[in-house]
Amino acid sequence: MIARPDETRQPPSSQAPAKAPGARPPADAAGGHAAPRRPKKRSSRAAVRAAAAGAAPLIGFAFRLWMSTVRIRWVDYGPIRELEERGEQIIFAVPHGRMLPFVYTHRQRLAPTLISEHGDGEIIARIAAELGYVPVRGSSTRGGARAFLKLVRQFKDAQDTILVPDGPRGPAFHVDPGLVVLANRIGAWICVASFAADRQWTAPSWDAARIPLPGSRMTACIDAPVRIEGRLDAAAVTAYAADLERRLRRTDERATALAQVDRPDGLSTGPWPGRRSAWRRGDPSARP
After folding, report:
1. For 73, what's the count of Cα atoms within 13 Å in the CB-facing half-sphere?
2. Where do the structural domains in the chain lie, given as residue ranges?
3. Which residue, 141, 224, 143, 231, is CA-closest to 181?
4. Distance, CA of 166 to CA of 249 (rounded, Å)
5. Paired residues of 137 in beta bridges
6. Collapsing DSSP states into helix, strand and coil, what is residue 169?
7. Handedness of CA 102, 135, 92, 240 (dihedral sign)
8. Is 128 left (phi over 0), alpha (psi -120 to 50) or beta?
9. Dist. CA 122–CA 103, nearest whole Å
10. Residue 2: is its pLDDT beyond 70?
11. What mean pLDDT do residues 227-246 have?
12. Is the bond preceding residue 171 a cis peptide, omega within 30 degrees?
């Protein structure tokens, strides 16, 4: 028998037929219908936040206790004191591997500080808040534009802050142009700083982080403050960033050399108010 044209068989198609609107999913082997896929709950983020909230007070207390045993000597802090007395806004630019002591000495000032949005940033942000900082989440690689605008707003009510120009991934001592743009936008002074201790542990990391040992003596060096004024083009921003990078390296080398010298000649190292020695415990209420 010859089939009519409308009865001619069509070859099987490799594509599944389109589903009608409102159609139920195909039945599974047990006779029921397969449940639609649901996105996984982001329980890991909530777990990190809970862990950070619980650990931050303990870590903050241990950090303050440990740093209270370190004696700090400031080198050339006089110009910074004059700026503070005049109420000038200051950005302390500190290398990523040298920031721990400065986080301690400048705590409890409600200063805004930029913290990465990466996984460990949540814990660091909680610890920063515990130490009296105002965390602003973001970095040059994630959420940078949003964090920049928020940092500008937060800085209006603060006198100083600590920024890490080479964080969070380096390379070491590299200065991100965002630091120059921020200082120019808010009219703040940039003060490059670094430290070294007579007894310290250096981490085998990209930033060669220095950890002063308990009971050690730390030398903190401050470079001459810089203020960036006027309208800047891209070439000027790059030039200022390169100059700050040279200052960072020079200040770090200077701190390394002075850390092993008990009484450096010809340098402004104090003395601390009310003390005969330039060495003193680094509490923020009586910095030189």
Report:
1. 26
2. 78-256
3. 231
4. 12
5. 115
6. coil
7. positive
8. alpha
9. 17
10. no
11. 94
12. yes
Task: Please tell me the distance from the alpha carbon of residue 90 to that of residue 189, in angstroms, as a whole number.
Answer: 5
Statement: residue 264 has pLDDT above 90: no
d(CA 161, CA 132): 12
Q: Distance between CA atoms of 148 and 189, rounded to whole angstroms?
A: 17
Q: How far apart are CA 251 and CA 64, in angstroms?
A: 25
- Three-point CA angle 83, 71, 75, nearest 5°: 35
- Kindly tell me if the per-residue pLDDT of 34 is higher than 60: no
Residue bearing tokens 């500190």 = 94
Give whole-number Cα distances, 3 to 6, 9, 12, 13, 246, in Å: 8, 9, 18, 21, 88
CA dihedral 218, 219, 225, 226 (to 10 degrees): -80
The three-class DSSP label of residue 214 is coil
pLDDT tops 90 at residue 266: no
Whether the CB-CB separation of 252 and 209 falls below 8 Å is answered with no
